[in-house]
Amino acid sequence: MRTYAPRFDGDVELWGLTGLLHDLDYERYPNLEDLDDGHPRSALRELEARGYPPELVRAVASHADFLGVSRDSPMEKTLFAVDELSGFILAVAYVRPEKLQGMTPKSVKKKLKQPSFAAAVNRDELRHGAEELGVDFDEHLTIVIGALAAKQDELMPAGADAPGGSDGDGGAD
After folding, report:
1. pLDDT tens-digit profile of 101-155?
2. Which of 55, 60, 107, 169 could serve as a FRET partner for 20 with CA atoms 20 to 30 Å apart?
3. Residue 23 resides in a domain
4. 138 in any annotated domain
5. Which helix (H) or strand (E) is 123 found in, with range?
6. Of 102, 29, 96, 113, residue with least CA distance to 126
7. Predicted TM-score of the model (pTM)
8. Among candidates 107, 87, 111, which has minimal Cα distance to 164?
9. CB 2 within 8 A of CB 16
C-alpha cells in the first residue's frame, strides 16, 4: 500500500495504515457469513468507533466483495489488488531458498498455474485486482514483490517457518 500511494498521489501513512488494519479482526472472527461479528464487520465497527478516517473505513469495507461496497478510489482499488497477492507472493517466497530476493513475476506466475499451491487463493481475483487498478499484471507483480522484498527481514525473519492459518494476507501495508 505504501509503495503504491505515491503513484496515485495518496497519503503514504494513510494507505499504509489501511493496509495494516484492514484484516485486524480476521483471526478472531474469520467467519465471513456471520452478519454480527464476521470479518470485516467487526473491524469496521471498531475502526468507526475509534474515529479512523472514513476513507480508511470505506476501503476496508470495499475489499470484501460480499459486502457490496464498490471500489471507487485508488486506495480502495489498491487494497483489493495487493491484499491476497501479498500473501500469495509470501507463500511463494517460503518455498524458495532465496525467499523474496531475486523473485520475478515469472516465478509467481508459475506457482499461479499450480492449483494445489495456496489453493484457497482465487487466481482470477488476483488478475482482476490489477485490471481494476489499471496496472499490467506483470508490472503489478514486480511492484508488490519489490515492496515485500524491501521488508523481507520483518516479514520473513531468519529461521521462521511459513505462517499457518492466515487469510493469505502477508503484508498489505
Report:
1. 999 999 999 999 999 999 999 999 999 999 999 999 999 999 999 999 999 999 9
2. 107
3. yes
4. yes
5. helix 123-133
6. 113
7. 0.86
8. 87
9. yes
